[in-house]
Amino acid sequence: MPKVLVSDKISPAAIEIFKANGVEVDYLPDVGKDKEKLAEIIGRYDGLAIRSATKVTEKVIAAATNLKVIGRAGIGVDNVDIPAATKKGIIVMNTPFGNSITTAEHAISMMLSLARQIPEADASTRAGKWEKNRFMGVEVTNKVLGIIGCGNIGTIVADRAQGLKMKVLAFDPFLSPERAVEIGVEKVELDDLLARADFITLHTPLTEQTRNVLSAEAIAKTKKGVRIINCARGGLIDEAALTDALKSGQVAGAALDVFLEEPATANPLFDLPNVICTPHLGASTTEAQENVALQVAEQISAYLMTGEISNALNFPSITAEEAPRLTPFIRLAEMLGSFAGQLTETSIQGVRIEFEGAVADMNTRPMVAAALTGVMKPLLADVNMVSAPQIAKDRGMQVETVTREQQGAYENYIRLTVITERQERGVAGTIFANGKPRIIQVKGINMEAELTPSMLYVTNEDKPGHIGRLGTLLGDLGINIANFNLGRMDVGGDAIALVSIDGELTEEQLGRIAALEGVKQAKALKFNM
Ligand SMILES: NC(=O)C1=CN([C@@H]2O[C@H](COP(=O)(O)OP(=O)(O)OC[C@H]3O[C@@H](n4cnc5c(N)ncnc54)[C@H](O)[C@@H]3O)[C@@H](O)[C@H]2O)C=CC1
Ligand SMILES: O=C(O)C(=O)COP(=O)(O)O
């Protein structure tokens, strides 16, 4: 039974879902804040469910010897070292929509609170001061809202702001002009937004490109008296520059849900009167927490129990519907990769994967990942479909994918070619109606061979007597032949024998086969069936 650790506070409904799906679960909501403890126990788990308090660092991942999946009950994954997880073959998934409405509503609440100084007015009134003249607000109607990052949350904020009769500008390099028209925002460059916005709200992920998007220079370009809302990530604003700008009056107010250092228990911004702070509450509503908890528990369970992948950030999704259709082709791709990988002795420069017929129409990315896994497994035992594409890239392997829709003799086939300095070696296979993989071509030579766990691969010159000699030798060696497949280029040309055997050949036995008259290469191949 797979075992999952929940290391942050998530809705108890998730625990029930894990159990109902046959997944064992430990709910230790304080462990996420204790890096040492997390690293100490993570080795026991196949899955990890987190929110933002758990920092899944390289060190934690190094200790995660059994971990297969990290599920973020929420959106931002800047607390997970995704490259380290990918290299270790661990899927990282999030719940991209579960808390977006809630977070957008928090941003709007923060904007209105800022416009009317609600927290301070509240504190003053409770203190019995009745300072009616002190709290002069601003209307948002007809004001300009600048949204930096117009994805899921930014778009919902835009919609709600339009309801408040605001004019909305958006800076987002990935927002298409058509989409901007559709959602009724004016797509602008950052400098334009900075110069024109009365309110600026941030909704990008924290990445190296977005870090300090509101830097001292950017803040200097804003309209004097701008109000800034950040319900995305702390690192998006240079906090020192914001502090200075709030003091100088360049920025009239800031509403911050997120901070560079969290938990934020001391921060110079807390001392300023025109600042509103909440403790990373963007996603904290009953509805959103229920959504993300249920979803993450379902996603993690589905991956661990069936291999279904949804909302992974480091692997293409495989839906429950396509999983059964894809599985035989993923296995075929891995076997072709393994076939070619085991025959390759020099360093691999590139891999070409061709898909022809019906398979060309399917989701080929998992098949490419599986093929690369097969190719590299003889060298790197713990490579898997998640880590293989990244490892191939890191090693400078060129990966080319070709899809052709026309059909040849087979309804569909995959050809994998490994390119080394010396040669190109291609091997092609198909899936028969019974779902079984078949090799149909090796190095341009047609044959039809079932792949079995232990095989002997022999190349030779096509001369009379070879098959007899090989069969006799295998008999003398006490090796039982389960299946004997032959193919040749042309009469007297290169020929290949692919022999399924019971048991495995020793080096010594292989040496004797290689020494047979006419044999060019003899190799023992193993396949995980
Ligand atoms: N305060 C909280 O509790 C919560 C915070 N968040 C934060 O909100 C962020 C945004 O969430 P979603 O809207 O769901 O993500 P999303 O991926 O749908 O949208 C992000 C948008 O940012 C844009 N973007 C990326 N790089 C950019 C750049 N350099 N400049 C301008 N735009 C850029 C993208 O094109 C995308 O449209 C999350 O990454 C997370 O960090 C999310 C949920 C709750
Ligand atoms: O979903 C996100 O990105 C969030 O920031 C929400 O964080 P949380 O789950 O409330 O710790």
From TrEMBL:
GO MF terms held by the record: NAD binding; phosphoglycerate dehydrogenase activity
GO biological process, one term: L-serine biosynthetic process
Pfam families: 2-Hacid_dh, 2-Hacid_dh_C, PGDH_inter
Transmembrane segments: none
Keywords, comma-separated and alphabetical: Amino-acid biosynthesis, NAD, Oxidoreductase, Serine biosynthesis
NCBIfam families, A to Z: PGDH
Protein name: D-3-phosphoglycerate dehydrogenase
Native source organism of the sequence: Devosia geojensis
